[in-house]
């Protein structure tokens, strides 16, 4: 470890410990941030995800973010933080909310900050979809390349799904589909191959039916899940739902739209 890296490590550690003592940690794996520590921490990591919320958060959405924080904790390049905003007294951290056009009615809001290794500039994007851990992880992968797996998903095929959905060029989509099909056929593990074939099947359906297939298939699976099914079938359908998420483009707002 170089002297510069060593110094940065201890600087970050001091900031984290100071935040621990001053604010308390709202969820496992999260570091509380304020106007003094926010920029320092965001600029110290390649990728940061931060939840803007009330000062003492609770509820289902808070729990969903906590799941992502716990899974992301072992990843050295990923920082997970929370900004608790007060609308009373000294109105702590209100300035940070205003910086990103976040108002109380929006809480909680997750933002991702990705630092450019060459320029050092940080690009900010605001998550605008359904606040579920699976969608948050999908958003993290699409914006930063950091992969937090979902049950039933395969990283290599999630990347192929990204390639497939990121282009409007039909020939490129067809080539990606062929590549995915070939890779699926080479998988020796039966369970993994079945999962890979789900990606291939969805690509084929999108090529024939268009992107509307995704919403139709999602509705079909939700209907099946609401009925009487075995635990095994439920697990299979939930995994298919996760694969569908890999094809969905998570809603977000970029810096220019914030």
UniProtKB/TrEMBL annotation:
Does the keyword Transport belong to this entry?
Answer: no
Which InterPro entries does this UniProt record tie to the protein?
Answer: ERp29, ERp29_C, ERp29_C_sf, ERp29_N, Thioredoxin-like_sf
Q: What's one GO BP annotation on this UniProt entry?
A: protein secretion
Any Pfam family hit = ERp29_N
Which domain of life does the protein's organism represent? Eukaryota
Domain (ERp29 N-terminal) spans 26-150
Question: Can you say what this protein is called?
Answer: Endoplasmic reticulum resident protein 29
The organism that produces this protein has a lineage beginning with: Eukaryota, Metazoa, Ecdysozoa, Arthropoda, Crustacea
